[in-house]
Amino acid sequence: xxxLGYEIGLSEITSYFGVFEMLLxxxxxxxxxxxxxFLIILILFHYLKLKIVEVEIARIVIIGVTILxxxxxxxxxxxxxxxxxxxxxxxxxIISGMLIKLKRNVNQEDIPxxxxxxxxxx
Length: 122
Prior knowledge:
Keywords: Membrane, Transmembrane, Transmembrane helix
Strand content: under 5%
Low-confidence stretches: 113-122
Number of helices: 4
Transmembrane segments: 23-45, 57-77, 83-100
Structural class: mainly alpha
Number of strands: 2
Distance between the termini: 69 Å
Order of helices and strands: EEHHHH
Largest sheet: 2 strands, antiparallel
């Protein structure tokens, strides 16, 4: 319920706007609020890629920052932590973080005694 001197329920909002319009408004607002978290994760990903961190550690750090971003976004919006929203978003972040394939770029200078074109020993 939104309280602005009077109470407005979800049914009144959806009857005024319609479900499709509410979905577009919701996606626009949540997408706009999520942009700072996305940019932080993008910068962190490139930083970890440059620092040549192990893939498992990079994955854990990125998932952790994503969950922290979800927590902070919800806290800023609602001033409390609604678990019915936080838990599904966190589970989705963990599952997608585990499913996305990360590969470490191997520089030829980091591999001693190997030819430039192969990474396997003969």
